[in-house]
Amino acid sequence: MTFKTSFKVAAIVGLLGVQSSLAAEGFWGAEDIRVAVRNYMASSGKPIDAKVVIGPLDDRMQVPACDGAPDISPRSAYSTSLVVHCSAPHVWTFNIRVDADGNIPLAPTPSTKAMTNGPIQQWHVVVPRVSIPSGTILNASMVEERVTDVPPGGASLKSIEEAIGLRITTAVSPGIALTTRNVARAPTIMKGETVTLSAEGEGFSIETPGRAEEDGYEGDILAVRNVKTGIVITGKVAHAGLVLVH
User: Fold this and answer.
1) Do 98 and 64 share a structural domain?
2) Sequence-ordered alpha helix ranges (H) in the chain
3) Which of 86, 88, 119, 141 could form a cystine bridge with 70, CB 3.0-4.6 A?
4) Sheet of 81-86: strands edge to edge?
5) CA-to-CA distance for 91 and 118, rounded, in angstroms?
6) CATH code: domain of residue 139
7) What is the spatial distance between Cα 175 and Cα 194, in angstroms, rounded to a whole number?
8) Nearest to residue 37, comparing CAs of 60, 78, 64, 66?
9) Which of 118, 144, 170 is the last residue of a domain?
10) d(CA 233, CA 246)
11) DSSP character for 4?
12) Of 100, 118, 136, at which residue does a domain stop?
């Protein structure tokens, strides 16, 4: 018997023991999904206490009952979320977190609308994995995508690709959805960064190291200190790491 098969058998046994009126009527509620997650954790050798929070799930929700146990797996090698997927007779998917501290970011709010004839609509958001101080340039290791059934608003970032390379303008905490209000486009060259100063003319070409005295975007006139002489000169930002002196 494979691991996946043994999990499904265990999950089916667990679900049969749930006396849920929703399941009896052909629907599952939040507790049915929590039971499936608990069975999965137990079959993975990581049983969880009854007090552990599983969510975000709205206790008013109803989704079509799954034909057997849903497929459950980690969302990725880096994510703390589980994907709960039902393929028959109706397709639905939830991204679930199991949090021993009872702290589940993006939890449903009282305004969340319960769906009675299908899965709750879900949205992608981008959240920090760790606390990130102001001024940090985001990279893929700092953030992850999560799914929420609470509309995040148009200002929220929707993908990791959209977030990479942006600069944090206000310190952010783990699990808080990033929006355009706390990120900005990063400068092409940042203050204090070592750059190459380049000057060209008829019959000559000179390059020397410099240090940016201020932030600058491509096309900006930037103050740069010549590392060798200590003299501050100005030049045009050509691209990352290069300033042209005329």
Assistant:
1) yes
2) 3-16, 21-24, 30-43, 160-163
3) 86
4) 53-55, 92-99, 81-86, 71-74
5) 9
6) 3.90.1210.10
7) 34
8) 66
9) 118
10) 10
11) H
12) 118
**Torsion of Cα atoms, 202 then 205 then 209 then 213, to 10°:** 20
> Cis omega (within 30 of 0) on the bond before 89?
yes
Give ∠ CA 28-148-9 in degrees, rounded to 5: 40
Please name the residues in contact with 25: beta carbons below 8 A apart, sequence gap of 6 or more.
none
pLDDT in tens, 128-179: 989 999 888 888 889 999 888 777 777 888 888 888 888 898 888 888 889 8
Same domain, 103 and 68: yes
Nearest-angstrom CA–CA distance, 102 and 52: 6
Split into its structural domains, the chain has a count of 3
CATH number for the domain that contains residue 232 = 2.30.30.760
pLDDT tens, N- to C-terminus, the chain (246 residues):
444 444 343 443 344 343 333 344 588 888 898 888 888 888 878 788 777 778 777 788 888 888 888 888 876 554 557 788 888 888 888 878 776 544 444 334 343 344 444 555 778 889 998 999 988 888 888 999 988 877 777 788 888 888 888 889 888 888 888 988 889 888 888 889 999 999 988 888 899 999 999 989 889 999 999 999 999 999 999 988 899 998
Alpha carbon separation from 205 to 160, 212, 216, 245, 246 (Å, rounded)? 41, 21, 24, 11, 11
Q: Does residue 134 sit in the same domain as residue 226?
A: no
Query: What domain range includes position 172?
Result: 122-186
